[in-house]
Design brief:
The complex is a heterodimer of chains A (172) and B (399). Chain A is mainly alpha-helical and 172 residues long. Helices cover 43% and strands 0% of the residues of chain A. The radius of gyration of chain A is 29 Å and the shape is elongated. In chain B, α1 packs across α9 and α1 runs parallel beside α14. With 399 residues, chain B is an all-alpha fold. Classes of the chains: A mainly alpha (172), B mainly alpha (399). The interface between A and B is medium-sized, with 25 and 33 residues.
Amino acid sequence: MRTPKHLKRALWIIALLFVAGNAVRLLAVPESFGQFGEFRGAHLSEERERDPVHRGSEVCGECHDERLEEKNNGAHGPIPCENCHFQPYAGDETHPEAHPEISQSPDRSQRACLTCHQYFPARPQAFPQLANFPEHIATNGPKLKKDDVGAHTLCVHCHNPHDPKIDLGQNG
Amino acid sequence: MTYSEYLFPNDMHIYWSLMIVTYPFITGLIAGAFMASALFHVFGLQELKPISRFALLVSLAFMLCATLPLLFHLGHPERALNVVVTPHWHSAMAGFGFIYSFYLVVLTMEIWLSYWEEIVTYGRTSASGMKKTFWRAIALGAGETSDDIKQANKKAIYILGLIGIPSACTLHGYVGFIFGSLKSNPWWSTPLMPQVFLLSAIVSGLALLIVMYVALSSKGYLTWSTKCLKTLCFYLWLAMLFYMISEGLEILFFYYESSDAWFVISTLLFTKLWVSFVVVQIGIGVVVPFTLLSIMLFMKEDQGLYTTMAVIAAATALFEVWMMRWNIVIGGQQFSKSYVGFRSYHPEWLDQEGILTTMGLSLLPFFLLYVLTRILPMREAAEATEEEKPLQSGEPAEQ
């Protein structure tokens, strides 16, 4: 039995689609793909060329050594300065004069502190964390600074972010 | 160091959402519907003729929507084709694009050839020039419908069916393969998983066809044949039997091995999955349809009760397969790698992967099926055998 015309044509179309699809696929593969593994090799050099946003606490310590020492001796010792002081070095070496618009002020909101201290079931229990901020204020606030307790009480009203631990025995 | 609730930090959230429940459900229906059609086209089960072409359209309608749950889950549709441009062959997921494309070609070819006579006729008889051109283009400029051509088409459909069975199995089975090969998760990691997925796919495909067949033939859209329903119900019973054996074996092995995996799986089954797996999936989804189908084996198919029971059995079987996807996908993420911490999943209504999206994606194939049946007829002229009801007057004669 001879192969009917429509079947032959359909097979040709499928073959053409297969070849064209593969040609497009080959053209679409990025040039450096597979150079080091299953990814675009040029990606590595592109990442290396980017300016680092954070420079590390030591750079801050070149000018603010007393602050750095206070932080390093406190419970926030391992936290880099730039976690709270937004990127003072972003893209510019001449900090701070050249870019006064870049805020070096730390975020003083509760939200900033709760990024790490919000209660999270998977966090180690020994890690200080808050499930309920008003309750925390009600429990500990009056023992610390009674006058400061109010609707807009912030963590930083009681805790010094550079050395946040408060000895309740002394202040209570 | 102690962890409250015993969850690891990277175990806090359930990332494979309702979309990953919907995806294997849709591919299962594709494979199942194709299998039903193959029973006629490849294995020559004449009783299934009334539904053989419609089953292919069902398969295609769901096929066209199969990628959508993945797109909604992953986001970034602009990266969707990367899986075929730069596939990583160490991952079974890399095969998706190729398996999907291959099966789509096979399925489209099979539908094209099944409707060959209609396509040629429309090319000749369509009233408007546009329609004529459209149908002639679909016929690739050819227009022969001689007996030789019909024979050649039949043979080609048979070969496509033969290729289509493993393709449909691969399209759906590889989902089971991915779950089964995830050695980090004891609820998934079993070589029985692809088989469980495949058998449940056949169950879902047949069940959907039974519900649609009864509904559509009662309105006259498909040729009614009690033998067709009986055959579909018998194969649904058979598929459910093998499915139950595989699923049962899986649980039995977990229990008998009593490895560290059983510790978490048994807790899971008696806590988080007690309602959704034990009560709903097994208690309702397996027991009800299998009991009904077993009783139906001894019933005469021409009773009204038989049809009612068939619809109830098929609807609950379909529901069972959806629940099975849920219990595997969501259930497998409800415990932490710590094996002692458990978490819950609460899908949202308006989320990108939420309940409304799921409902929309589940209804979309039916809309596409409606569109497809507006273009291609559901029934064919020469469907009825001498034992079935005669064709209604006004139906076109066999070409």
